[in-house]
Write a structure and sequence with these properties.
By secondary structure, the chain is an alpha+beta fold. The protein has 2 domains: 105 residues, no CATH class; 113 residues, Transposase IS200-like (Alpha-Beta Plaits, 2-Layer Sandwich). Helix content is 53%, strand content 18%. The strands form 2 sheets. Strands 3, 4, 5, 6 and 7 form a 5-stranded antiparallel β-sheet that branches. A two-stranded parallel sheet has the order 1-2. α2 packs across α4, α5 packs antiparallel against α6 and α7 runs antiparallel to α8. The longest helix has 22 residues. The chain starts with 5 loop residues before the first helix and ends with a helix.
Length: 249
């Protein structure tokens, strides 16, 4: 059976779905996102609506630093599922100044409120895209790690090629580079990529273009939209690549 590339599945899942996609712009861990939606699902089972008195109480108490985290989570989620425009407008303002301990929860509440309202006002299907790195508009944020071929230290001109070719090719593909870091044996990018794009094709093409100048980039790379790679993550990827070189696998 022919293996279907994971990136093709990723792209096709969007192209084959007729819906309005919502991407959380703020970076929120996948674990917290799952916790939020489980909480919201349970709350809906007992939620009887948002009264004017409830709304006034929440508006007054949410900014209060003495109110506990659990209480704030309940109030934010209640506002989110109320399907009231005034609740959505309040959440928009609140997210901008939310305390750090509840900021991510508030961002999730704002997203759910938006989806709930649009579901009610539109016949179009609403789909929430969950990634740890978030995105912007209809673009998802990815962290990409490129490794020097055979772990040979990049020459200065090779670093310049990466610095020139990646911004050019990615901009041409409607991608936005937020960060490009080049070290001796690897380059790391954080990029916003249109969700309907062929991510693998874009990256393969620019790597091949760079390799016209000396075959200095490995065609094996790491890409994730779960989190940015830490130095420890990068070290593990490089050690695995080095081991594969030694074993010939």
């Amino acid at each position: 059976m022919q293996e279907i590339d994971a990136f093709d599945k990723f792209r096709d899942s969007f192209n084959q779905t007729n819906a309005h996609f919502h991407v959380l712009e703020q970076r929120v861990s996948v674990d917290l996102q799952m916790e939020y939606f489980k909480y919201s699902q349970q709350l809906r089972k007992t939620f009887t609506g948002l009264t004017d008195a409830d709304y006034e109480s929440y508006v007054e108490n949410l900014p209060d630093p003495t109110v506990g985290l659990d209480k704030k989570k309940l109030m934010l989620s209640s506002l989110a599922i109320s399907r009231q425009i005034k609740a959505y407008r309040f959440l928009e303002d609140y997210v901008r100044n939310a305390d750090e301990d509840v900021r991510d929860w508030a961002a999730m509440a704002l997203m759910e409120s938006r989806i709930s309202l649009e579901s009610e006002l539109s016949d179009e299907r609403q789909v929430y895209i969950s990634t740890g790195l978030g995105g912007k508009g209809e673009k998802l944020r990815f962290c990409i790690l490129l490794i020097a071929n055979e772990l040979k230290v990049f020459a200065d001109y090779q670093k310049e090629v990466i610095q020139r070719e990646f911004p050019f090719a990615l901009e041409e593909a409607a991608c936005d580079i937020e960060r490009l870091t080049i070290k001796d044996q690897y380059a790391e990018l954080v990029v916003l990529i249109p969700m309907r794009s062929d991510v693998k094709s874009i990256l393969d093409r620019v790597i091949n273009e760079c390799n016209q100048y000396g075959n200095f980039l490995s065609t094996v790379y790491t890409i994730t939209n779960v989190k940015e790679l830490s130095e420890e993550d990068i070290d593990l990827v490089i050690k695995k690549y080095e081991k594969n070189l030694q074993t010939g696998s």
